[in-house]
Protein: Glyoxalase
Organism: Nonomuraea glycinis
Amino acid sequence: MTTTPDELVSVRYIVDDVAAAVHFYTSHLGFTLHTNPAPAFADVVRGPLRLLLSGPASSGARATPDDSTAPGRNRIHLIVHDLEAEIARLRTAGLSFRSDVIAGPGGHQILLADPAGNLIELFEPASP
C-alpha cells in the first residue's frame, strides 16, 4: 500500500517527555494536537506534516537500536515568512537556538531544538 498525495506525511521523533514535546510544538510552532496525549505517545499536525512524538514506553522508541540514543542530524523543515520576527517571538518565549542564522543562495535558516534535542529548521526563502 502507498500513501496518496492527500494523506498526511508522518515523521517520528523520539522524545523523553511526551507532554513537554506536545506543549513545545503546539505552543510555539503552530502544531495542533491530533490524538489525545498519553504518557507513551502523542501526535501533532501542522499542514500535511504529522509529527509522531514517541516517549520511552512507546513501541516506536523501543524499536530504536541502543546505539542510536542521541538525536540525529535530520530535522523537520518549517518555512516562515519573517525569520527575524519568529526568532524574536521564540526568544521572548524563553527558547534558545542551536545555531546562528545562516544565509545561503536559497534563503536564511536557523536551528531550534525541542525539549528532547530533536532539531527544527526554521527557513525563510530568498525573495525572487
User: Anything to note?
Assistant: Strands lie at 9-14, 32-33, 41-46, 49-54, 75-79, 102-104, 107-113, 119-125.
